Structure prediction request, 137 residues.
Amino acid sequence: MAIDPLKDGIRSNVRIDFYGNVHKRLKGTDADKRYAMEVLVLKVLEERGCPYVPRLLEEHPEELYFVSTNCGKPATQISKEKSDKLFAKLEREYGIRHLDAEPRNITYNDKAGHFCIIDFELAEILPPPPGLELPDN
Prediction:
């Protein structure tokens, strides 16, 4: 049950449903590769315990579509310096390099009281940083 489009661009269509979940459908150039990367990165970040990124709820690879938790509203007032620090922290603490490290990919989650990072279509998974406690599988 999706409602008003939040974003309908050349690379994705994003909607928020009645429950606040984010529905994202990738489209355009390399949509299949970008979809696979974003889903994989979200899984790795959850496994590595990162608290300030979306959680993957559903994945539909045949449709290049997934559902994730909502990380708040765009942080339109964040400075480039502050966003750079957040992306550097993500890489240093969780081993994910965001390849579109721009303020537009930062949100603010009022409920959690902190900034979040979104949109991992363009990212690189690095080895887990030293000292990162991974859950036993």
Summary: The beta strands are 2-8, 12-17, 22-26, 56-60, 65-68, 73-74, 96-98, 106-109, 114-117, 123-125.
